[in-house]
Structures are given as C-alpha cells and as structure tokens.
C-alpha cells in the first residue's frame, strides 16, 4: 500500500478551504459533537475565526496564558452525558475529572475549579445531591477546591436532567512546555492503559445495547499520573492529550494535523481488554474511535521513551501503559496503522459518531 | 478471542498469499458478494497482498446500500409521524433519502432510536403500549430470521403496537443478474458465509452449473477470505465449476432448517427494487397477509413518495462491480462520508465508504 | 448479513415470551442471545451470533481444517523448490 495520496480538497483534517461549508448543515447534528470531522469543521469555521487570538489558535486541551511571568493554564469542559449515572461514575465525577485532566494535559497542577449547572425542572433532588456529592469527592481526591459556580433551571423537557460545565485554572510546572507543535519525527507514542473503556461502558447502559457483564467507566483524574511522568522525564514530554470523544484515532489525527507530522501505529501493540474487545466485536465498533476518560496519550522524545513508560507503569492508573507507535516524517497529517496481519491502513477522522453496525 | 484471533494470524494469511502467487498462471476476476467481506478485504489490505493478475470486484452485498430510495423516504415519513418510535440498526441512520436522513429527523425532534437486535425493538413496544414502534427490517437472508422472529412473537403475544418496515433482499437473484449481464467480467464468486449459514448453499448449485463458474462459500476473517480466494483460484486454474464450502465451521449444505421454517411462515418472495440497479424479479421478501397488521407499509399512510436520485451518483455501476468507487467523478469531492450522495458512501460496508475511509484514491 | 460474532454459551433458559434464550460470552463480556435457532447448543458450546440471534453452532473440528490445510501446504513446500512467482 502506498502512503502517497493524490491531494484532494477534503484531504487534511484542517483544510480550511473545504468544499462542504457549514451552510451545508442548516441544523446542528449530534455528529457536530462527536469529536470527528464535523466537530473540527465547527471549530475551524465558526469558533476560531470568530474569537481569533493566539492562545485559541493553539487548539490544545487548555489555553496557556502568561500572567506576570508565570504560565497559567485555563480550560473549560461541558458534560452532557446520558445516562447521568453509570458504572464507575456519574456526570459529576466525569466533569471534575475531565477538567482536571485538561489542565494536566497542559502540564499544569490544578489550582481551582468552577461548576456551572443547568438543571432540568423535575430532576429529583436526590439525584442532584448524589451528583454534587460526587463532584465534592472527585475534587477532594485531587485536592482542588470548587471555588465558584452558577445554577440555572430550564423547563421540563429542555434538558437531559443535568448539564454540567466545569472550568479550571492551573499553574504550568516550570520548564514544561506541552504543545502539539513539539511533536517531532522519531518521537515515541505511549498510551497510559487499555482503551475504549468509557465509551463502551456508557453504551452498555444505553437502551438497546445492554450487556450482562458490567463494564465500568475508566473516568479518573490524571494529575497524579502526569506528575509522576513529568518528574521522571520532564521536558522530554512533547505532547500530552487525553483521547476523550472520538477516541485515540481522532486525538492522534488532531495532533498529526496540528503538528504537521505523520503518525505510525502498530495494531498489535494497542492495549484493549477482553471485555471491551468482545463488546466492540458484537457492535462492529473500532476501539480506536471509542471514548476514554481516564487515559492519556504521551508523545515523548525517543531517548526518554523507556523511562517514560516505566514512570507511567509505576502509577496505579498507568499499570497497563504501552508503546503504540511513533511520529514519522512521512504522510504528514495522516495516521497510518500496521494491521495485525501486516497490511497498512489509514486511520482517518470519522465524520461524526461511530455507530454500531450489523453489516 | 477464540474463533477470531486465530483467523487473523499474519503468518497464515501470508502463507495463502504466497500459495496464490505461486499457483496463478493467468489473470482472473473474482467477486465477493458481501459487504462485510469487502470491509475485511480493505481494512486488512488483503486485496493488496494478491498478485496484480487477480482482480477483486466488490459486489452489491450491502443491504444498506441497496435499500431502495423509495423505502428510505417511506421510513423517514413514518419516523416523522408523532407518536412513532422508529427503531433501526445503526447502519441505516445516515443513509440519505431524497431530502434528508434518519439522524436529521432525530435532530428535528423525531423519536428515532438505534437498536442492536429486533427483539430490543419488540421490548420497546411492550414497554410503551401507547406508542407505535416500527422496526426498519433491512438486510439479506442472514438478518431475516431475527426480523421474522420479532414479528412472529409480536403476533403470538398480541403486541399490536409493533410493526416491521420490511426491505429484505436475496442474494441468488442478484448473482444471476450480475452473471447474466453481457458486460459481466466475474469468473468466480465468494458467496456470503453468513447468508449461507441460514440458507445453506443448495440454491447456488444450479447457478454454478448454469454459468459454469466456481462459487466458494466464504467467511469473514482475513484467513477465511484468503482461503476462499485461494480455493476459487485453484478451481479456476484447474477448470472446475461448482460450489465449495470454505466456511465449514458455520455453513452446511442445508443451512439452518429451523430458521428457514420461520422465514417461510412469515415472509413470501416478491419483486424488489435494488437501489442503483433497478427491479430484480423475485429478489425480495415481504410480510405475508397473515401479518398485515404488523406490516408498516400497510399500517402507515404516507401518501405518494417520489424518490429522486442525484444524477452524478454511479452507485449502480459500483454495486454491480462495473466501476470502482474511485472512478466516480464525485468520489472524495462532492461525495464523502460526511456528505454522501449515494448509499455505498454512507454504509461502512459500502464499497465507496470503505475506499474512502481506508484511503484508496487511486 | 455480515457481522456474525462467535461466542460461548454460558447459560440456557427461557424468556417471558417462551423463547429459548441464553447468556453468551464474547471475549470478556456476556449478553443475552436468542438460541431458538440453535436448539442443539448447550452450555460450553460456541455459537455464531448476528443481531442477538445465534444462527449456527460452530463446528470445532471443521474450524481446524484451514490450519490442517496450511500445514499440508507447508509440508509440500519443504519437499522441493517452489515455482517462480508469476506476477
């Protein structure tokens, strides 16, 4: 299989002159939130040009701002998951972990969080209590205070029970510069553990796709894991990103596009648990595109790769960390994977959400 | 995973590839009927491991792709009706009708839900007696027993708010259309292993005899496909015709007799329009009159449906294996998975989508 | 049509509508599957499942055939020089 592809307008994920303009979609679709091409389009064609500024243009998990000589990381994340409660967590813990993780992906220690809640009229108070308590425990486990917030209530039928927005600030560790643009050919790509757990756990409690085995979400705060990693290899870490919606494939495509490098993966090296594997086979899903909430991708200088892997594995959340690929100079902007039978395949961004199939 | 991992062994696949290279003495053109097989071929790069003299042509074995436009428009009209819970397999949700698709209907407030099994849809009907639950029953013979069972159970249990929108298609008539065409280049077939698991392979024997070709019933893992291709080429090289079974761990000559019994009770053969190909006589199944109450076509009045295909789409030629997806003028430009003009670009089993997603531009 | 996944039967029983159902294990997860079309399948057997229905009981002996064929091909190759690849 050749890696060269004849250029065509819809080629690179970040091609701003795409032939299918936003006006193609008169209504917002679920796919616009799926983390795939439509999400990219929305960001590139609407948000970035509208708000345009250097920090935003970095398009990392959080913005890094210079404040009186210190680097401040600033991030926001909204959570709209249904069901509100799932094995392994709920929208509250998911929201706190998610924002803490975005800060960690900037190489920042979380300093403070805010919590904005949009509640639907009729939500049982008991559920709200549980969610708030979950947020309390999640924040406490990380040692970060929730210092401010907001509450609104919308009419019955206008919300999925609860929508949560958590915004966070943190201080970037000295000497650390995490940015997709630091990825260089030769860098090694690591993943901190088994993939696709969260997405499958959520799908398994949705109507129509239930399993008998209880699959537990991997939602977790990664600040401790990142701390262990950075203490070991510091500025040799070039990129950190947590592969949430859209999965490992989407995240690596984003990085490849932003850094203008190629990425080569080895299918046999990607860690997937037996549970998740079975679920993906039945539903016809590719684990590479399924969401994770307690994992991170690490792109590290080759000479520090072994030390980085060791550091991850020493931490409970990184016990199954693995080396899954490398950054290459070929096919910039593209992610290519060597399949388990030896062939090469392109791992592209999907249009929207990956859907289970029967064919 | 057992019965899966061992069929994805690199060493075994390469061994067959080598045997094929050593054994082939002239060019051959084969067709794999099933979309799932196309998916595996392209995802694992198997067709690229074959010698250049062997051409794999992708057949119309994607029920999602061949569901007639009129049927999709009917589904959309039903889904837009208030009080209806419209259920479907994931594959169908993005397929474009004349104006819109099921996901867009959902975006505008329709109750459209994805299910894994038709029994899940039946369960929804039980749980919501005040709503009309409709299940979009597309598929080849493989999916038919599941769909038949759902409606058979509904009738037995008196679940009256459950109906099927049936658009089943059958493989053998499609094969005859391909083989009978004056422009046919296909010299050997890989028959669909899961269709044959249900139906057996008796009905392919007269086809093999009439058109004097080898047909090998083939599975879906890389090793199955390699072996299926190997056996077909061996038969061609040795001048043998007839049906062989590669997928012996699942397929027998008679198939699943019990499932066939339920199919006969619930469905009857009818003419069916195949999107991109046209009407193929006796190539579909519809619900028998005894099941009229559970037939969404008879149950819902949606007025006249005028279906219009975009003219640039060459789905028909792709589905018949006459052209490859990347030969289409719109491929990758006006027609992409996010803005599909035809069904083979939408379904992950469609040849166009497979080509696009796995990077085949040349 | 296409997506048929092998799983191992863990339990067999009946549902409220009187259909034979079973719990089938796929890799690490289990799911309820309708077994009415594989009445011969018992706990421990492997079935092929498509959209929540078992459509065949997998035959273990047949499953090994492809590997026997590969071994045979390997043996023949050892016997003498292979023909040149003709591309």
Structural summary, described in words:
The complex is a heterotrimer of chains A (359), B (362) and C (87). Chain A is of the alpha+beta class and 359 residues long. Chain A folds into two domains: 62-172, PurM-like, N-terminal domain (60s Ribosomal Protein L30, Chain: A, 2-Layer Sandwich); 180-346, Alpha-Beta Complex (Phosphoribosyl-aminoimidazole Synthetase, Chain A, domain 2). Helices cover 29% and strands 23% of the residues of chain A. Chain A has helices at residues 37-51, 54-57, 91-104, 125-142, 197-205, 223-233, 247-259, 274-283, 305-314, and strands at 63-67, 70-79, 85-86, 89-90, 108-120, 146-154, 162-172, 188-191, 237-241, 262-266, 297-300, 322-328, 335-338, 344-346. In chain A, the strands form three sheets. Chain A has a seven-stranded mixed sheet with strand order 9-11-8-12-10-13-14. In chain A, strands 1-2-7-5-6 form a five-stranded mixed sheet, covered by helices on one side. Chain A has a two-stranded antiparallel ribbon with strand order 3-4. In chain A, a hairpin with a 2-residue loop joins β3 (85-86) and β4. Chain B has 362 residues and is α/β, with parallel strands linked by helices. In chain B, 38% of the residues lie in helices and 20% in strands. Chain B contains 16 helices and eleven strands. The longest helix of chain B is centred in the middle third of the chain and has 16 residues, at 222-237. Chain B starts with 9 loop residues before the first helix and ends in a 5-residue tail after the last helix. Chain C has one domain: SH3 type barrels (Roll), CATH 2.30.30. Chain C is built from two helices and five strands, in the order βββββαα. Chain C has a five-stranded antiparallel sheet, with no helix packed on it. Mean pLDDT of chain C is 82; it is low at 78-87. Classes of the chains: A alpha+beta (359), B alpha/beta (362), C alpha+beta (87). Chains in contact: A-B, A-C, B-C. The interface between A and C is medium-sized, with 19 and 17 residues.
